[in-house]
Design goal:
The protein is of the alpha/beta class. It is built from 13 helices and 32 strands. The strands form 7 sheets. Strands 17, 18, 19, 20, 21, 22, 23, 24, 25 and 26 form a 10-stranded mixed beta sheet that branches. A 6-stranded mixed beta sheet has the order 7-6-3-8-9-31, sandwiched between helices.
Length: 656
């Protein structure tokens, strides 16, 4: 509990006035001895216990009444929902989730989850701590602690505005932990404002145990989790999966692969108007959505033959979540899909090169080069979409390791004698195998290199035979397993646009049937190649994030933003003749939320308080509670009056 006028608490000793007056009154009495008084003293001694208890209660009620009126004057503040008790902390750290999903709105008021949470938190901190505590902001866009002068700044600064990024809550907590440890902040309140998207919290990752241990070692740290986990009703999201410019002798057109997804389980047919904007020309296409997804493949949009490069967007009708209603795209002459295989084993690189040079898209050009490890420095890193590394893992700090870390997509294959080096948190273990081939028991078919085809057909991984397998060690995301817990394909936990995979077998004979069957290997390699090609050419698709653009003089088309906020917002940016379409990460569209039980487990052992709120809820997080003390004073005065009432006179006995 805090007070708006804390100086008046110095008057609390005045609550002892009734006791002082009572003692003065006793001291002023004069004793006069009288013979008949002995009978009265005997009667008084018989009722002495009850009389003293009555006097003590009267004094207690009077003291309580005075204390209550003093508390009313000091205007106490408390938040029953918040737990804003225990005095003013030395430091308040606000961890703000500015991800795209936080822009879900209340359609009646237009207020987003982010705006509603910031407004409530700003008001609560202003009324309870004011400027008496040091206020620090850490938001997911930059992950850098920012000192604020006053709580009202939470709603005014650009760094608390909307973004089209995803959030990394464990990274935000790590930044807060580093700040507390470095600055010795004393008693600290950490506020987390989030909508509990599972993709943002990474509850299954390996960072939470270290975070809990780090915060447990600190004294005086409390967590307040202000959550907005309600889903958007009947929400639709849109994404453009591929854009191709095609030109014939008669015309030129864009071919777009568009996917529309609705989060709820409703299966009723829905007539959906899609608005396509290319340059300054817009068209509307009405499609019928019969299931949870609508897929338009190679939807044609006519363009002028002179338009060799340009940009556009696809829009959905407005709903409660505006961040996923628009998807931007750019187009230009398609670049060559170039790949490099680093290997000296002909049995390994021959089937890989044949698969990579086979055209999955007849309108694109493919090129694949084989280099020995000694010539890896000759790789054209800026023009290569995919690197397949079948050699010893480089050491951290080596030039090759730095180049690989900046490469778009890298697929590592195990050498015959692996070293102990690690890359992106993963490393090779020992080879194993027996006379009986192992089969794939599980693979991730909803996303990634082994996802189902667009028609929903699964890849034939169940037919794959693995004779030899190299163990994959470290923390990553498994995409395929042999047996119960033997990863065959694993994705490293990298950030940004780069993708790194480890495949625990080889395509050659004697290791697996990848090359013999071909379908799985072809699909896997070309999906990795397409993933890496997003950063090639003059027209590129990227996810919004603080490292989305890199160095260069980038300018946004149609809107002016601060340079620090430019890579965090969806839209079209240009640098010379290069166009980049920034969009939200598609994982922000996933409707999966972290439950209260799982959230409690993440903060197990820490002093935390979970506040479930909704955008529609206008209740303040903290409010004045002087009415409670006024009511308490009335009760105390009423009790004192009842105890001071004279006893009821006895009626004379009948017939006396």
């Amino acid at each position: 509990m805090t007070f708006l006028v804390p100086a008046l608490l110095l008057a609390l000793p005045l609550a002892a006035l009734p006791v002082v007056i009572h003692l003065i009154h006793l001291y002023r009495r004069r004793q006069v001895k009288w013979a008949a008084m002995m009978f009265l003293r005997m009667a008084q001694r018989m009722n002495k216990g009850l009389s003293r208890l009555r006097q003590i209660l009267i004094l207690a009620f009077r003291v309580l009444a005075v204390m209550a009126i003093l508390f009313v004057i000091t205007r106490p503040m408390a938040g029953g929902l918040l737990g804003l008790t225990g005095g003013v902390p030395d430091t308040v750290i606000v961890l703000l989730d500015r991800s795209a999903s936080m822009e879900q709105q209340n359609l009646a008021t237009g207020t987003s989850k982010r705006a509603a949470g910031l407004a409530k938190l700003s008001q609560a901190l202003r009324d309870t701590v004011g400027t008496r505590s040091k206020l620090v902001l850490i938001e997911n866009g930059h992950l850098q602690p920012q000192a604020l002068e006053k709580p009202e700044s939470l709603t005014d600064l650009p760094i608390t505005g909307p973004t089209d990024t995803s959030a990394d809550v464990p990274a935000m907590l790590q930044s807060a932990l580093d700040y507390i440890s470095t600055n010795q902040t004393g008693r600290t309140d950490v506020w987390v404002l989030s909508d509990l998207r599972q993709s943002d919290w990474d509850a299954g990752g390996g960072r939470w145990q270290a975070l809990r241990s780090g915060f447990t070692s600190l004294k005086g740290v409390r967590f307040h989790l202000l959550t907005y986990a309600q889903p958007a009703a009947q929400n639709l999201s849109i994404a453009v999966e591929r854009v191709t410019r095609r030109e014939t002798a008669d015309k030129a057109e864009l071919l777009l692969d568009v996917r529309v997804t609705r989060a709820d389980a409703a299966k009723e047919p829905l007539e959906l108007p899609l608005r396509f904007v290319v340059g300054d020309v817009s068209t509307t296409f009405k499609a019928e959505m019969k299931d949870s997804q609508l897929v338009l493949q190679a939807h044609a949009i006519p363009i002028a033959k002179t338009m060799k490069q340009g940009h556009g967007r696809v829009e959905l009708p407005a709903d409660a979540s505006p961040a996923d209603n628009v998807f931007h795209f750019v187009f230009a002459e398609p670049p060559v899909l170039r790949s490099v295989i680093v290997s000296e084993d002909e049995a390994t690189f021959t089937p890989l090169q044949a698969a990579l040079e086979a055209a999955a898209d007849p309108s694109r050009k493919y090129a694949s080069t084989v280099l020995p490890p000694s010539r890896a420095a000759e790789i054209a890193w800026d023009d290569t979409a995919l690197i397949i590394w079948h050699a010893q893992l480089p050491k951290d700090g080596d030039l090759i390791a730095k180049q690989l870390a900046n490469a778009r997509c890298v697929l590592f294959l195990p050498p015959e004698t692996p070293n102990t080096n690690a890359f992106a948190g993963l490393q090779w273990g020992a080879w194993s195998g027996d006379s009986k081939s192992a089969t794939v028991s599980w693979w991730r078919n909803d996303a990634g290199l082994l996802a189902n085809t667009r028609s929903g057909t699964a890849l034939p991984l169940g037919d794959l035979q693995v004779q030899r397998r190299c163990e994959i060690l470290g923390e990553g995301t498994p995409l395929a397993r042999l047996g119960e817990n033997q990863p065959l394909l694993m994705r490293a936990n990298t950030t940004g646009e780069n993708q790194v995979w480890f495949l625990g077998t080889l395509p050659g004979s004697g290791a697996s049937t990848l090359a013999r069957d071909g379908v799985v290997m072809f699909a896997m390699l070309h999906r990795a190649l397409n993933e890496g090609s997003r950063g090639l050419g003059k027209a590129q698709q990227r996810e919004a994030g603080m490292n989305a653009l890199g160095a260069g003089e980038w300018k946004r088309l149609g809107e002016t933003l601060l340079s620090t906020e430019l890579p965090l917002r969806a839209g079209i940016v240009e640098n010379g003749d290069k166009l980049v379409a920034l969009n939200r990460p598609l994982r922000e569209d996933a409707p999966d939320f972290l439950g209260q039980t799982a959230l409690g487990e993440l903060f197990a052992g820490l002093d935390h308080h979970i506040i479930e709120d909704q955008v529609e809820n206008e209740t303040s997080l903290a409010s004045e509670v002087w009415r409670t003390f006024l009511f308490l004073m009335a009760i105390a005065l009423l009790g004192e009056a009842l105890l001071c009432m004279p006893p009821k006179p006895h009626s004379p006995l009948a017939g006396a």
